[in-house]
Specification:
Elements: H1 3-16, E1 26-27, H2 34-43, H3 54-59, H4 87-91, E2 118-127, E3 137-151, E4 154-167, E5 172-182
Antiparallel strand pairs: 1-3, 2-5, 3-4, 4-5
Length: 183
Amino acid sequence: MSSATNALADRQENYDKYIGMTGEPKLAPMPLERDTLRRFTQAIMDPDPAYYDDEHAAQSRYGGVVAPPLYPAHAYRTPAGAADPLRAVQDDPDSDGTAGNDGVTFGLPSIDMPYKRLLNGGNELVFHRNLKLGERCVVTPRYADVRLKQSKSGMMLLVVVETSYCTESGEPLLVNRQTLIWR
């Protein structure tokens, strides 16, 4: 092995300890309510009657009114009175724009690294079922992979966060594998 390969392997050891770490399950602040669902479907401009029409939804494969498949990822909103995450960019030009928003890692420990800029490297989604009115979702995050890579412009850290969403009773809703690229 070359000395550059050995140095990369040594640095990778600093990140191996994060692989497999799982955060505590986090319950959504409130169950899915009809008005929240109405506002969400208006925002995404999806007029599917399964999201609002009781009669139509009762006859559908869902058996009742449901949320769109990606809704669980948005059930954890920034609380009222919290700092605007985009304000951090004004205060610090090197900020990644998240301002500590926990909407990706959901309480996983921060990875000790020198990198400051964050880029979304993409998402892989697996849908199991839709959240129904009155149900609350539970999110459980896990570091699926943490890899140091050499790119043309320097080192970068690729972090794969696997986030599982289920109902309070444990029925799976959605799994999101998001790749984060730190530079």
